[in-house]
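Hi R.,

Here are the chain sequences for the assembly we discussed:
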Amino acid sequence: MTDVARDIGVSRQLVSLVLREQPGASDETRARVWAAAARLGYRPHVGARALRQSASRQLGVVFVPTHATEPDIVEAIYPAAAAQGYQLVLSAVTATRTSAQAVEELLGYRCAGLIVIGAHLAGKAAAELAARARVPVVSVGAGRRNASVDVVRSAGDVGVALCVRHLAALGHRQIAYVHSASMSPAALRLSGYLKAMAELALQPAVLELHGDYTEESGAEAARRLLAERRLPTAVVTGNDQAAMGLILALARAGVSVPEQVSVTGFDDSRFARLSAVDLTTVRQDPVRMGAAAVAAVLRRVLDPKARPREVVIPTRLVERGSTAVPRSRS
Amino acid sequence: MTDVARDIGVSRQLVSLVLREQPGASDETRARVWAAAARLGYRPHVGARALRQSASRQLGVVFVPTHATEPDIVEAIYPAAAAQGYQLVLSAVTATRTSAQAVEELLGYRCAGLIVIGAHLAGKAAAELAARARVPVVSVGAGRRNASVDVVRSAGDVGVALCVRHLAALGHRQIAYVHSASMSPAALRLSGYLKAMAELALQPAVLELHGDYTEESGAEAARRLLAERRLPTAVVTGNDQAAMGLILALARAGVSVPEQVSVTGFDDSRFARLSAVDLTTVRQDPVRMGAAAVAAVLRRVLDPKARPREVVIPTRLVERGSTAVPRSRS
DNA sequence: TTGTACGCGTTATCAA
DNA sequence: TTGATAACGCGTACAA
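And here is the predicted structure of the full complex:
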């Protein structure tokens, strides 16, 4: 900054004024400052700025970059934060890096608030982190109403219930559900299935998988369904990837979707939209989740006494080609 | 830090010493300092540290979070950087955020070096960025030998040639190639195809797609192949997602893989490994790319006079079930 | 081991 | 519009 000031022969603090778009400089000077800054390739030092202001205009974001949907939420957070003049500091959770480490690193930036995407903030961890961070924390995608962190999540139970009712409306009666207990939002989705089945007076059939919702687990589900005496006419899954694996494994076994079995997913990920996959699924709306997350942190940044809230983002059914009227009722 | 010092009644600089693991404090004091730091939830302020040292131990990383393979490289960069005591500052390229903006933001952190994943640094942009940043820049995945930035890339031409030779060894003679000109590494892959076909004295057949390598473009390739008089016995694609789309669209049209047509992909992404997809593909080794990228930046961080290099990471063929002996030679 | 003093780049306040 | 001065949190040199 000193270089810029010297270059055009003005004071350092005038340059600071101009770059922060504060009043107090003539239009002509403003133009010269901007020109000089561009010419010299000058950028304000974010660290120095944060230091001086004892409050950075930065939001920390914890996410899993290799996840199917988390990057979509990150993508939505960027413009929402930028609109309020905030930068993002991303911190990834990877195979070699725990969420605790990711959060720890963010604390060094003295962010104004933290957005944690995914199921890293189970009850106790949430409270500890919130106490530790001393700044508002938002958990996106998982967790329930909570005294220490805001929660932004999808209405997963409603989404699954929509699938069940859609299938029932098509005439299905044997509707199985593929469940993975290890995923935190899965419990909510399962409850939606059970509730919808009960309302329709249908017999629930839950297939519980080991491990995460991956394509492999969908294939495992297919193997287990095929091993049974009779296939259900429809399968609701809690995740697109599991649905994909299920469909492909069924196809290998000569069972066609949707002719013999209808299948639904959850997420409306990029796979689902593929014309070749054409999966009926539940859309999560990462854009609204990202915007809601930013709104939630900033609400508490601006009013530190505000209490954390729970924001539920609606889900909606996307009807595609993987569901159809059952071939025969039996 | 002052708080920690006051808490246990020692000087601020002693705390600094201990936390940086420098000699000059008794074991007993060390323990007390660490205990107090943990209890108070203290973390050094990265901005203040960078400011004081006029050289942050941070590496900036530009990447596309929604991309199929870039997050894998990011994941590999983390441990490689951590091993040398460097933190990462991630900056995402999204639909609403250009690579120029992503880089611009990183400059504010005064990173020791920049790693740009993807094809954002075409010739001129690379030189400009390198001049602007005043720190070493590495381009990962795209770009060619260059005076201003290091390049770490896969041997894409070799990888595609491996596919062609593998198919030829199985007995294939009509081997088509699905090409997408808009992707920067694609030219290299195409050249590998053409070279290998020439060496085998086979007639090349290049199917050029509009747009990126997406599942949709694979489906488009399938439609165009099906519209022709006769299908090739094998199709080499420059990307797993395109191969996936191709296979699924062929399946819908009643053409089975590998029985009627063999297909290869490129990337060994998560789809390819799926037992239901079981795609023969080329493995890019994101781990080695990430490690090489870190090594390349740090080489020039430590020796600013060093010239940029080009590092080529070998690729290898992963033989799976999407390729087989052609049903009949015709 | 401690205290003292300085500077990193920036913002903020004041009086001129 | 400017200059003087201080402060943010940290690292480091030096003397005690």
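Residues 156-284+317-329 of chain B form a domain with the Rossmann fold fold (CATH 3.40.50.2300). The mean pLDDT of chain B is 90.

Let me know if anything looks off.

Best,
T.
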